[in-house]
């Protein structure tokens, strides 16, 4: 039997085991600061698979003083990063398989049809916070490793499985893993891409813009300067900046994205009293960073845009909007589509799915930005989750895709790392 | 000596006493819920003047069930309304002299040059929260009464002095006084008008508008509908509604006001996460009510405006903005400029100030709306405070104006109420 068939067979026979494992993981709420119990489940599985375990609490000085460390979390105690290494027999390419264990908060509970941590299965979908982003992807990785182990296949290159914390809050977990010395010849991150392949990814970072006005009584509002009105000018102009920044992006991988690197205004806060003219307004948002752009270039683009507003409205000459770069920051990723890791995953996809994979640029940042920019590791983001379901209520994953992804990754490991018996 | 000269003389001699009294009042912080100590100072003064005292805690069922009761305060215990009546000898017109004891919060303390409750005097100005709005006006009233009492002048009509709570929060104090039975042939409210006479006043009420969007990840913001963007449409259109509503106001009293009845957006709140498309946005504001307009008419104008937005943006057809009328509500006032109370105050102004008074429509609501609409009492708003200083940091009053206003009010009382010896 060909290895592809053996793996196919194994996954068919162990389908339910994998699904049960995902259910277990989803049922363990692992929001920020609460990752330990879900990590314990991962650790148990890695032990079962006989991987070399590395479990450590991140947050040392080397991490905190790193220029790409970006976190407001002061305490990582008890919620470790977990790495399991499957040592190769030698002579093959190594690979990092990276998944994050943290999930975003469940949001408005009343909008969930089931408890967000039920892991309920209906019509081939498993529901729950984290099912798609990205515990399902992590299960694909672990099933791929388990299939290879169970079938007695020996890989030549090392497989470094990582279950990190903090992806949703700026990537400190993956950064810590890179700084701990984990490097490899390639990496796969099974974030929810709808099984598309993302060799490139948009980076992003958060900003806060503050605009001042002049207070007045609402009954004589013409005596004041409304910070809301001035901020609306900023918001409208930001759309033009977004337009201009996106005009420059001609990469065909972005053909399907209406706005390759969006500027999103996520918050708008101003005023304290209905009948006063507000004298301060604040927006918070995220600016997309192009794959070939640096953080600093994006910052500069925004800063010079804000400087230019004085030409549009005299008020801004003496009261220029102020910008802070705070909170989340995700580095862009920029792998050539012709990279051999891409070719191998594409070929495996085609073998399993009997069709060409869709290759696009990621519309959002992932820890791939850290692996590629800091770790200098070629990264492909490719996973089974439903893109539109991430961070949403009633988040779900299509279980069939999770199994297919496990199969594609197992095949890719054979080809990338090589195996003693190179039938793959 | 003519009465005008006697009063002039008395005020000159008692100038410092009045200023000290204002200082005492300003030093007693009387923000909402903390009115008792300042009221105690008023009570002491009324006792000294020999007025018939009526001190009561408002908040009975009759008040709370009144259609114009508008308050979110559940407890008035220990912070009474205070009324002092100077009974006339009979046969004259009665008058209500109404001042509110509540002051708005002091705001950003770092912006105050002195402690907001210092009552410090510099270059003829007394500084402090409430100095202008409207403890200075209240002192003008009390000095006028004291001058008349001290000079042994007997008025024919009753003078009903009121020191009410809750003006800054919807007028429950004055409404309670009306419902307790206090009516008169006329009323003066010495709110800070810069010594202008306001026979008419803009009413106003608060509104809250909620607009829904559809959440999405900021990196694919085009998949969502930003509630901020939709709310900006509402804000921009509200300016057109304001324009339309003000086109209809041709009263010459509004000639000096760029916008007679403004719509002010005082708050804009939306979003919780920089990299999410916000699915809900809320604004709070106040809409000005024309002197000849009813509350219900203004509500209807706003409600049908919101209904019309569907014609402008399809999103609003299935997601119409929702409006709530909440919190503050101030009835408009609409006294004919030729009313005898106006004529008497104007003439007294001219006698004291040696110039014509400026007569305008008030750009903001006062308790005059309640006195005139509910109590059916002709009301003139006229006081010594500095309009632009009300609710501001470093609030102040020009002390000379406080004394001049006392004189004008004293003369007006002689003429309006009549006196036994009708030399006035």
UniProtKB/TrEMBL annotation, chains A, B:
Q: Which UniProt keywords apply?
A: Cobalt, Hydrolase, Metal-binding, Zinc
Q: A Gene Ontology molecular-function term?
A: metal ion binding
Enzyme class per UniProt: hydrolase
Q: Which InterPro entries match?
A: ArgE/DapE, Bact_exopeptidase_dim_dom, Peptidase_M20, Peptidase_M20_dimer, Peptidase_M20A
> What residues does the Peptidase M20 dimerisation domain cover?
201-307
EC numbers for this chain: 3.5.1.16
Cofactor requirement: Co(2+); Zn(2+)
Similarity-based family: Belongs to the peptidase M20A family.
What name is this protein filed under?
Acetylornithine deacetylase
| UniProt organism field | Bacillus benzoevorans
| Upper taxonomic lineage | Bacteria, Bacillati, Bacillota, Bacilli, Bacillales
């Amino acid at each position: 039997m060909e290895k592809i068939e053996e793996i196919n067979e194994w996954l068919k026979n162990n389908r339910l085991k994998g699904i049960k494992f995902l259910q277990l993981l989803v049922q363990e709420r692992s929001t920020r600061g609460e990752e330990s119990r879900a990590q314990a489940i991962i650790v148990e599985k890695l032990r079962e698979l006989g991987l070399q375990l590395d479990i450590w609490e991140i947050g040392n000085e080397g991490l905190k003083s790193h220029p790409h460390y970006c976190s407001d979390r002061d305490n990582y105690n008890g919620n470790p990063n977990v790495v399991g290494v499957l040592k190769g027999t030698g002579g093959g390419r190594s690979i990092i398989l990276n998944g994050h264990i943290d999930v975003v908060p469940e949001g408005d509970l009343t909008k969930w049809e089931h408890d967000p941590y039920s892991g309920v299965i209906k019509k081939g979908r498993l529901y729950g916070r984290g099912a798609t982003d990205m515990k399902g992807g992590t299960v694909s990785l672990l099933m791929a490793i388990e299939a290879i182990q169970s079938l007695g296949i020996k890989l030549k290159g090392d497989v470094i499985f990582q279950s990190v914390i903090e992806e949703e809050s700026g990537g400190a977990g993956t950064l810590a893993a890179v700084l701990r010395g984990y490097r490899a010849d390639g990496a796969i991150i099974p974030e929810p891409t709808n099984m598309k392949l993302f060799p490139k990814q948009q980076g992003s970072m958060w900003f806060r813009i503050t605009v001042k006005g002049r207070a007045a009584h609402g009954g004589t509002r013409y005596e004041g300067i409304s910070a809301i009105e001035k901020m609306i000018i900023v918001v409208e102009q930001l759309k033009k900046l977004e337009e201009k920044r996106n005009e420059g992006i001609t990469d065909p991988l972005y053909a399907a994205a209406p706005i390759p690197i969006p500027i999103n205004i996520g918050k708008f806060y101003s005023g304290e009293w209905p009948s006063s003219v507000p004298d301060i307004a604040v927006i918070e948002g995220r600016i997309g960073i192009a794959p070939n752009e640096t953080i600093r270039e994006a910052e500069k683009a925004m800063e010079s845009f804000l400087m230019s507003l004085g030409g549009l409205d005299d008020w801004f000459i003496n009261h220029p909007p102020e910008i802070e770069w705070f909170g989340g920051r995700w580095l862009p990723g920029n792998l050539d589509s012709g990279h051999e890791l891409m070719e191998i995953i594409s070929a495996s996809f085609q073998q399993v799915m009997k069709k060409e994979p869709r290759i696009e640029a990621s519309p959002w940042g992932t820890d791939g930005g850290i692996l590629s920019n800091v770790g200098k590791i070629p990264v492909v983001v490719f996973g089974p989750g439903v893109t539109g379901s991430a961070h949403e209520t009633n988040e779900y994953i299509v279980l069939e895709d999770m199994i297919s992804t496990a199969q594609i990754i197992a095949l890719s490991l054979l080809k990338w790392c090589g195996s003693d018996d190179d039938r793959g």
